[in-house]
Amino acid sequence: ASRSEDSQYDINPKLVNRRGIYKDVYKSQDGFTDYQLRCNLCVAMAYAPQLFNREHAQICLENVAKILMEPGCMGIKTLDPSDRQYNGDYINSDMTHGWNYHQ
């Protein structure tokens, strides 16, 4: 949704990191996590497509493809690289003990 449509939705414009997405959480404790682009929303769209506005869903899925997917990669990023919590570096000796962060 563009800023001009904010009044039609439950949105805190100060927390929006990226537009053209669907939330996969709502009223989270931290607030900003409501506005993170994550691949989880694709599961909801596949399971209950009737809950989504077709035009908005198309825009969202185009953003998922453009932002969370890379040519030649086997998987999908689990968080938007522009998100402040994104950490795409894989270092085996770090706190994840061999598990990737968001790739």
TrEMBL record:
It comes from the Eukaryota. GO terms for molecular function: 4-alpha-glucanotransferase activity; amylo-alpha-1,6-glucosidase activity. Residues 17-103 form the Glycogen debranching enzyme C-terminal domain. InterPro entries: 6-hairpin_glycosidase_sf (IPR008928), AGL/Gdb1 (IPR010401), GDE_C (IPR032790). One of its GO terms (biological process) is glycogen catabolic process. This is Glycogen debranching enzyme C-terminal domain-containing protein. It comes from Strombidium rassoulzadegani. The lineage of its organism: Eukaryota, Sar, Alveolata, Ciliophora, Intramacronucleata.
